[in-house]
Amino acid sequence: MRNLTILDVQAAALPVAPSPQHTLGPAICVDVVNKAVYALVSDNSGSALLCSVQLDTPGSMAVTGEARQVCTLPFSMASNTSVLASNMQFLMERESVFLALRSGDIFTVRVEVQGDSEAPELVGTVDSGIMACAWSPDEELLALVTGEARLLLMTQDFDVVDEFPLAQGQQGEEVQVALGWGKRETQYHGKAGKAAALETSDPVQSQIANARMDDGEDDGQTRVSWRGDGAFVAVSFIAQNGA
Predict the structure, then answer these.
(1) Which end of the chain is more exposed for a tag (fewer CB within 10 A), N or C?
(2) What is the DSSP string of 11-53?
């Protein structure tokens, strides 16, 4: 990421003043074809609003005008403070904004750069909630992690094509593998270090390892990431046993 450079900074006034009491989480996406930025904000009443900002000509990051309100989402932060955006992405093929909430609801909004956009559509709900999700690079598959720590693979029409638990208690060809250095006793230490490797580990070091979640380096959030060619998907999560 060291090759990324900020070329310019532009500001656009939102149609409503975002409420600091009603946060929806980091919810923003970009339509790279039509040079539009979409953001999800909430007003003082707790209503969730989808807003858009039109950028200038291709190759420029200048803002052509103030942000406009695209639509109002059919949920309120005032009555449900647990509503947070799990994922928000612009689907180029559908020309729609995809929004998944941690409460389990999945919305799509077909947007128009010029003119009125369609009303938000609730395409489905995951009863146990959505911890994280991400579309494949070709937008053909949606990988979704439920509140029950299960991974769902869905099509563009949100039909489930595969489902399995993240926590596996057995080994096999199709079972995910946790990469690491292996046990201390099985590592190569040379003749001088072999005896030391078989000694019982320092209890202080064990306490430090067990407290890795308390040092602020890991927020404990579940994340989903696809490889660039869409052949593999990776999920980072905290298992029940804290591993």
Answers:
(1) N
(2) ----SSPPPTTS---S-EEEETTTTEEEEEEE-TT-EEEEEEE
Phi-psi map region of 168: left, alpha, beta (phi>0 left; psi -120 to 50 alpha):
beta
- Name every residue whose Cβ is closer than 8 Å to that of residue 14 and which is 6 or more positions away in sequence: 39, 41, 51, 67
* Structure token digits, residue 36: 């539009």
Confidence (pLDDT) at 158: 92
d(CA 199, CA 21): 54
Token pair listed for 63: 């803002």
Edge to edge, the sheet with strand 160-165 lists 130-135, 142-146, 150-154, 160-165
Looking at the DSSP bridge assignments, the partners of residue 44 are: none
Query: What are residue 74's phi and psi, to 5 degrees?
Result: -80, 50
Which of 8, 91, 108, 15 shows the shortest CA–CA distance to 53?
A: 15
Report pLDDT digits (tens) over 34-88: 888 898 887 777 778 888 888 765 455 555 556 788 888 887 665 554 567 888 9
- pTM here is 0.72
Question: Which residues face 85 on adjacent strands?
Answer: 101
First-to-last CA distance in the chain?
28
